[in-house]
UniProtKB/TrEMBL annotation:
Species in which this protein is naturally found: Hymenolepis diminuta
Example of a GO biological process term: protein folding
GO cellular component annotations of the record: cytoplasm; prefoldin complex
Chain segments annotated as transmembrane: none
Coiled coil: 7-34
UniProt protein name: Prefoldin subunit 6
Pfam families to which the protein is assigned, alphabetical: Prefoldin_2 (PF01920)
Amino acid sequence: MSLEAIYKSLTKEVEKMQEVESNIQKRLQAYQQLAGQLSENENVDKDLEVLTDDNKIYKLIGPVLVEQSLSDARDTIKKRLKFIQDEMLVCHFKL
């Protein structure tokens, strides 16, 4: 093999490696973002646990605050936590 052929081969391998590193970095960022969302939602879940039905809860929809029942808020958070955890598993297996 000539020196030029070896150089071209190594260049291609380096490009492949850089592409793999880039993909790993993107997936890691997505995983970290999901981890942050999970933490935020776990905190909301803890906050909702101490509330009673007498407390008023509002949900931000666009620029408007809309009243929401405590049970609806808890259900929404539980579903969101499940979704985020499932997405984290998908990201984990892709890494």
